[in-house]
Amino acid sequence: MRKDGRSCDQGRPVQIIRHFTKYAQGSVLIKTGETAVLCTAMIDETVPSFMRGEERGWITAEYNMLPSSTKTRKKRDRNGKTDSRSVEIQRLIGRSLRSTLDLSKLGERTIKIDCDVLQADGGTRTASITGAFVALYDAIQWLLNKEIISENPINCFVASISVGLFKDVPILDLCYDEDSQAIVDMNVVMTDNNEFIEIQGTGEQRPFSQDELEKFLFLAKKGINSLIADQKSALGIK
Amino acid sequence: MRKDGRSCDQGRPVQIIRHFTKYAQGSVLIKTGETAVLCTAMIDETVPSFMRGEERGWITAEYNMLPSSTKTRKKRDRNGKTDSRSVEIQRLIGRSLRSTLDLSKLGERTIKIDCDVLQADGGTRTASITGAFVALYDAIQWLLNKEIISENPINCFVASISVGLFKDVPILDLCYDEDSQAIVDMNVVMTDNNEFIEIQGTGEQRPFSQDELEKFLFLAKKGINSLIADQKSALGIK
Amino acid sequence: MRKDGRSCDQGRPVQIIRHFTKYAQGSVLIKTGETAVLCTAMIDETVPSFMRGEERGWITAEYNMLPSSTKTRKKRDRNGKTDSRSVEIQRLIGRSLRSTLDLSKLGERTIKIDCDVLQADGGTRTASITGAFVALYDAIQWLLNKEIISENPINCFVASISVGLFKDVPILDLCYDEDSQAIVDMNVVMTDNNEFIEIQGTGEQRPFSQDELEKFLFLAKKGINSLIADQKSALGIK
Amino acid sequence: MRKDGRSCDQGRPVQIIRHFTKYAQGSVLIKTGETAVLCTAMIDETVPSFMRGEERGWITAEYNMLPSSTKTRKKRDRNGKTDSRSVEIQRLIGRSLRSTLDLSKLGERTIKIDCDVLQADGGTRTASITGAFVALYDAIQWLLNKEIISENPINCFVASISVGLFKDVPILDLCYDEDSQAIVDMNVVMTDNNEFIEIQGTGEQRPFSQDELEKFLFLAKKGINSLIADQKSALGIK
Amino acid sequence: MRKDGRSCDQGRPVQIIRHFTKYAQGSVLIKTGETAVLCTAMIDETVPSFMRGEERGWITAEYNMLPSSTKTRKKRDRNGKTDSRSVEIQRLIGRSLRSTLDLSKLGERTIKIDCDVLQADGGTRTASITGAFVALYDAIQWLLNKEIISENPINCFVASISVGLFKDVPILDLCYDEDSQAIVDMNVVMTDNNEFIEIQGTGEQRPFSQDELEKFLFLAKKGINSLIADQKSALGIK
Amino acid sequence: MRKDGRSCDQGRPVQIIRHFTKYAQGSVLIKTGETAVLCTAMIDETVPSFMRGEERGWITAEYNMLPSSTKTRKKRDRNGKTDSRSVEIQRLIGRSLRSTLDLSKLGERTIKIDCDVLQADGGTRTASITGAFVALYDAIQWLLNKEIISENPINCFVASISVGLFKDVPILDLCYDEDSQAIVDMNVVMTDNNEFIEIQGTGEQRPFSQDELEKFLFLAKKGINSLIADQKSALGIK
After folding, report:
1. Are the C-beta atoms of F95 and E202 separated by less than 8 Å?
2. Which positions bind phosphate (chains A, B, C, D, E, F) (predicted)?
């Protein structure tokens, strides 16, 4: 039994609120337990200079924690040096979303994803991916509705969840207290076909075996399937 | 008659949601029409080095717009250079809140105010001050409830509103479309005793006369009184 | 009676030296009591990218204190972060000068104002505006003399002065010692028609009343009229 | 058959030169095919402030590519913003090395790892980990030989290698040309007990299945075992 | 005959105005022809951390050109990257002044030199050294007069001048037009004993011979002797 | 007799390894005693914007010390502020190399020199110049061989060495221990015609006389002639 009463293979309750703000073409507030992230997708009718003329689109992502999102106030990245953890996370978000799309169907434009963490209780990077996919979906629907693009570039749904080893037991969807004591920490990004987009696993306190890896991936699949059901439900897709 | 149906001396509807996030001692989401700002107050048990040993507290404020808060995505301040408009605004917020307190009753600690704009439709700086005061109030109640301080340092309530000259008519509480075409733009910070904490008026398109100034201040007083009533109502004070 | 023998409604002696350096089209050393600021205006035959094609000119301003201008040496802004007080001041200078001009008569060019404080004894921002207007006037005369522009874009003269409440008495043109103890501090920017370009008033130690505000503005008008007479005398205009 | 004649499950020839420079306590030039990285370990008798008094040591790592290490000259990180790919890599190197040690046996000191890429032909991050472990080993021997520490903090050997899917075939140890066209790219960090320290796999062009994952891990194990044999041989351990 | 009527071995007229501003213990405006530099010396009762406890003083120098000091406006160093030419010059100024002093007689304090160029017409670095020495002299007199130090740390006078090869003729004290076309450019820092503190000579368009070097040094000596006479005259020393 | 057994007029053994890395058109590892510098020359088919259309080429240089190149680890220049000593040195390297070329024969392209110090034991800037010239020579041969340019722009060979006064004796080619105690320190850049490209001499502990200067230059000539012989030998030129 876990601190918040969940079983080992149980994720936290998820809430996905679309159209949370009005300017972004996709704007989603995702809550996973006590973690809350505002994920927006804004369309920019240019591509980075190294891609001009290639007739393909691009997705960029930025991740940021608000100063008040953590127990001890987090300083803003205003000294010209983006926090290195944020850099790592936003690269992961960008890669994960790009790999779900046929970028040539997007045309020469960029969709800019922003994930701003309002409240952090573990799993902010995985919630960011899960929420940002919904915002991206809405932004692409906007392009289709306006007939700016004619074919849907989305190949599959994508969501992300954490798994880990806590007191030598594999568990799903770690909250902050669990995460900070985890022996192994793994983030998995998967599609609705149960295929992997990204696996990042780290032995924090000791290495882990192939056998343990298989248990983590089994839990992750269960969690991802549930999250993708939540995404589809929020989007009104059955 | 204004675009959104208001009369010239009518402010926008205000919503003040306390305890919006859980880590900050004060956390307020304020909505003024379509403008939404998350205002938090976090207590830090130190003071800046130049104040050590003076047995007084301090208030600092940071103001920031989320990238998705504006129609065209706003770049983050990650190049080491805080946007100059943000610098000006956060100095105003800090000064306004400090002047409502007896800092010697706060003890040697800092209350750090963060105003993060989620959605901007004019009046973000005035909404920040009005909302941040409520967050500050909650943080100070927290200190009093925990018996960390024994006397309430708050001398008065403070709120802020904009006034301006639009198509040669003085109006209250400008939305973005009005603000961007205003002939004169003025932000007023006042107390519940109808006294001024700060007046900042700018002739954007032409200078303004003493007579016009008096009309602006009359409107501002009306708006501030209404905002302070909203603050007290949110705090359950009659 | 004030420390330097002035009465409450008396400004400090002003000296305006034109052509202080040779490269800028306008170059003015202004001394107000012990405060000395070098104000220059240099013409740049481009406008910021967001204004291209609008057939209007622009004015930008930078404000800086030399390290030796203050009692304790002031560090240079070389760490990539302009001092926030400087940011606020240079925005004020730019706004104040722009509002005196018909920018469409200036053509697509920028006049760059630099205000470098050589010695600071209070009132550096107001002296900067008063001196920079004379430098701007000279730069515009240069454009007219060279027949680069055909119509004078200047609509009015502008000058600036501080007023404040010191030991509960309203006084004009505060020196540093007065400013650092002022109860209320206000900077006023006015035209030669006695209209306001900018009012910035702050209750430093306590809020101030409408009645006090009127006294401040009365003093400011007196001071501004005297400064504009000094500007016209330096420019040989009667 | 691969471009350089290797079979799919064959790594590149490895050369590990110890004592390449003289000041660092560990200094290793590692060459993996055409990739060359200088890995150094320098002892610093302090720990970061957040760890003081904990009686544990720390490992930090920095990764950098020399401007001439790539076909097109790479700009130096001198604008105050470390290249985001470098940030991600140096965090991986630090985590991987820390997890091989019992940090409490290191005492309150930091070992600073620097990985400077002299020539890049794919696999610079995995070569950095493999080489840096040898430099770390030498630095720890130095501490043991000087009797600064009494117990060896090293729990296991660690090495790293890339695997990937190239033209739909799983291959080991990708060179740059293979890496830039890989369908799936995975970096694996393992111990000499065949346990995982870190797995980072990315579907670059399409998601990958559980079955493919198993093939990648099988190849990785083979490669790691060979690299650890190379490390032991360079260190004169049988 | 040179453009401004000088002979080849003739320096420009020099004006040294002491006490130009009031806060710095030494404040000198030096004019060399059309070049004008404000050189100040401010006493700071600390030394850099690496020198604490050594019972020696230190001299630091900063060099900066005001934006309006050059024909085309020079951007301020506000992007966090000091102009590389300024870095080179301020290191030269610091070294030159330090070598004239017995730093142990200065006590554990720093004299901070600031050289701010108000108008640049060639020779700003040499004018900075010549003027800064006088400011340093005044600051040290101030320390002696206040009996903060008991022995004069100054071992010798120091001044600096440029020499160069212009249209194949060696000339003294180059103005900007000469400097920008010089074949060889050399800056010499010398004492009143005709000994060298620093020689920096560069073949800009071609290498130069030993014979030419001797001619340059002969001219430099002549110029330095005249400058030191100017310094002594300004200081009232015969 | 010197610490390492050399006589006063004897330089350290020199090793020049060409083609040390494979991407740069010129890539040289130069060792001078215990000092080792990787000097590369990479061709960039553009020139800085201020030179476009002038039909001349350009040479830029960057100098950097690896963190592990010094006894105490040297921090990387990642805070946005290049170490001021590095700035000074890279300007010297650039100037020295440019003055050996007829830049109009290079065409509108830039050769980018990088000098990365692998191990520092005094004389890194002079070794950088000596090694970088060989890398530049190779890059220019590459351009000639590919028939991208038709005429050789190199006018002369250039090398550099340090001289100094150590315990009142003039010595050649100072190692770190000698350099850190030198009374006078001088770096000389000369051609194979025994002409000067650059002389930079500094009286570190006391001024130096004309007589001493002549002794330094005599030693420098001897050292340079030997270095140029080493360069020619490495290049297979007799």
Report:
1. yes
2. 85, 123-125
Q: Which amino acid is at F36?
A: A
Residues 6+ apart with CB under 8 A from A211: none
> Does the distance separating the beta carbons of D62 and F76 come in below 8 Å?
yes
Chain B: list its partners (3+ Cβ pairs within 8 Å): A, C
Report the DSSP pairing between strands F35-44 and F14-18. Answer: unpaired
Contact present, C182 and C164 (Cβ < 8 Å): yes
Residues of chain B positioned with their CB less than 8 A from the CB of A44: 73
Chains contacting A (3 or more CB pairs within 8 Å): B, D
pLDDT(B80) > 70 = no
Strands (E), chain E: 14-18, 26-32, 35-44, 58-65, 110-119, 158-166, 169-172, 184-191, 196-203
For residue A80, is pLDDT > 70? no
Tell me the pLDDT tens digit for each residue of D124-178.
999 999 999 999 999 999 999 999 999 999 999 999 999 999 999 999 999 999 9
Q: Which helix (H) or strand (E) holds D38?
A: strand D35-44
Chains near C (3 or more Cβ pairs under 8 Å): B, E
pLDDT at B1 over 90: no
Residues of A in contact with D125 (CB under 8 A): none
Residue B78 confidence (pLDDT) above 80: no
Beta-carbon-side half-sphere exposure of residue E146 (alpha carbons within 13 Å): 8
Annotated binding site of D for phosphate: 85, 123-125
* Shortest Cα distance, chain A CAs vs residue D230, angstroms: 21
Cα distance between residue A16 and residue A131, in whole Å: 7
Chain D hits for A90, Cβ within 8 Å = 84
Domains of chain C: 14-74+84-235 (3.30.230.70)
Q: Chain D residue with minimal CA distance to A93? A: D202
The predicted complex's ipTM stands at 0.94
Contacts of F37 in chain D (CB under 8 A): none
Alpha-carbon distance of B35 to B31, in angstroms, equals 5
Q: How many CA atoms lie within 13 A of A170 on its CB side?
A: 16
- Which pLDDT belongs to residue B83? 82
Please, which pLDDT band fits residue D205 given cuts at 50, 70 and 90? Answer: confident
Q: Kindly report whether the global pTM for this prediction surpasses the value 0.90.
A: no
Q: How confident is the model at residue C84 (pLDDT cuts 50, 70, 90)?
A: confident
Q: Is E161 exposed, middle or buried (0-12, 13-18, 19+ CB in 10 A)?
A: buried
Report how far residue C134's alpha carbon sits from residue C14's, in angstroms, rounded to the nearest whole number: 13
User: Is C217 within 8 Å of B210 when comparing Cβ atoms?
Assistant: yes
- Report phi then psi at E226, rounded to 5: -70, -40
Q: Measured between beta carbons, which residues in chain E are less than 8 angstroms from residue F87?
A: 84, 87-88
Identity of the amino acid at D97: L
Q: How confident is the model at residue A1 (pLDDT cuts 50, 70, 90)?
A: confident
Residue from E62, E72, E77, E87 whose CB has the most chain F CBs within 10 Å, to mutate: E87
> How much is the CA Rg of chain A, to the nearest whole Å?
18
Using the predicted structure, report yes or no on whether residue E178 has a pLDDT greater than 80: yes
- Strand-strand pairing, E58-65 and E110-119: parallel
Average pLDDT (C61-69) is: 97
Q: With beta carbons less than 8 A apart as the criterion, state whether F131 and F123 touch.
A: no
Residues of D with CB under 8 A from a CB of F: 21-24, 27, 34, 36, 38, 40, 42, 44, 62, 64, 66-71, 73, 76-82, 112, 114, 116, 118-119
Least confident interval from A124-133, B210-219, C202-211, E32-41: C202-211
Task: Say whether B32 counts as a known binding-site residue.
Answer: no
